[in-house]
Amino acid sequence: MTGSTTACPVCGSDRFETLFPDYQGRCVTSQMFFIDGLGLENRCCTDCGFLYNAAGTRGLGAAVYNTEVWKPKPQIMNYSKGVKTSHQKAWETFLSLADLPESGAVLDVGGGTGAFLECVHRDRPGWELHAIEPGGGFAELCGRVPLASAHNAAYDTLDLDRTFDCVVSLSVLEHLENPLHALRWMHARLRPGGLLLLQLPDFDKLPGDLVCADHINKMTVPYTRMLARYAGFEETGADTGMVMFYLVLRKGEPAGGPVPSRFADNLAIARRAESVARATIEAVRAAVDAAESRGGRAAVFGTSPIGSMAHLLLGCRDRVACFVDENKNAWGRDIDGLPVVGPERMAELGVTDLALGISPVYWETVAGKMRPLGVTVHVPQPDQPEA
Ligand SMILES: [Zn+2]
């Protein structure tokens, strides 16, 4: 099921730096489902700097979004309480960055279940809504908002012979074969001066995405800005302070010549991410070894891709008792057949050693909360400073 490619999907170069990990087998997706027989072959293109997994779900096409990958998230990977939905947050961010008119036609490329268009429809009822969604969310999308047109197909199979005032793409480019192709396609679907609203997970803040099988492109702020400019967009607004970054891009003229390089920026980001990812895996190894030596049991804190892949990368599933999470929505679920429990259940399960499989942002706070529960907390120790 491996969709290995030899050339950089963006610039076509076959020269690259290899990134952690080099792995074939059972892989986790961004929706926390496991798929067998995928590869993690992460690379940084030496010529343009593009960060990509040459395998993963690459080459599997839109069909993969009708299977395990695109189902509603079983766990809400969020530590804050009472927060807005990600779609509401994205919409409010775009409203703060752009002066959006009261009417117009908007196309949502990868509209999911329609959660974002619902926000648009509520605050801009005069907008005409159009959506493309190749995955299983399509039926819900169609029932959720009044759509002037809807397409249950991959964007690159559609021949839309019209333009829009606004195109929206939320957390889509990281899944597609070639983000430059997608940006050019969206550029062609905009009227002159039309706006593209782009949201992407910032790989610089999500090093665990190195092991996320369906985030085949690791999008960074400097690289995405370069790519948008090259595809013919002028940036008119940006918010790059969060785990997701947001760009408001106005249709302009495409640049000529070869794809400009962001190799130095992207390789530095990738090396930091590798350092955190490796350290996280090593923390799980340390917890498993320590638990075994004292006759206890090991657990992994968190339900993110990196923590969920550690036992597979280490081949130690039998030696992990459970996953631990403070998010009650995750309790009673399982990760690769291992139970997810709340911290207070660690004692009854005999957990003596807990590895942190979460973003570095939370390491200190979570370690401080877990130590009083009588476990040794194994905090990852990266050999490179964080961003
Ligand atoms: Zn390249």
TrEMBL record:
The keyword Methyltransferase applies. Gene3D superfamilies: Vaccinia Virus protein VP39. InterPro entries: SAM-dependent_MTases_sf. GO terms for biological process: methylation. It holds the Pfam family Methyltransf_23. This is Methyltransferase type 12. GO terms for molecular function: methyltransferase activity. Keywords: Methyltransferase, Transferase.
